[in-house]
């Protein structure tokens, strides 16, 4: 049923990953120079004018795939084994999103040397989604054990 506890966590995963696409992941400002990365692109600007831009759309694509898997898992409530498998695959995809974010953050740090940037909200959302994924998988596993124990008693 969709009204189970894990459904809330699966919806939170989808929401976190969709919001990740649109919020900035990392930003570095030094005087008039600024470098900002999102899940779609890395932008270097001077005095408000864009100097260079690089598309990193594959982070957004992976986030969209993770969203789709979470929603598909939400509506696969009759097949809990499939849900657990989708949760494992989704964890790998979200780890890939986080890994690519860190990689491009390290790459963007070299644009303005001798100055530190800061991680923004978009970086923390995949981490929150991974925690929600762990909790959702725990509740799915709990439901599967409950159903199997009820089958044994018949």
TrEMBL record:
Q: List UniProt keywords, sorted A-Z.
A: Membrane, Transmembrane, Transmembrane helix
Enumerate the transmembrane spans.
55-77, 84-104, 124-140
InterPro entries named in the record: DUF4293
Q: Does the keyword Hydrolase apply?
A: no
Q: Which Pfam families match?
A: DUF4293
PROSITE patterns assigned:
PROKAR_LIPOPROTEIN
- Name recorded for this polypeptide: DUF4293 domain-containing protein
Q: Taxonomically, what lineage is the organism?
A: Bacteria, Pseudomonadati, Bacteroidota, Cytophagia, Cytophagales
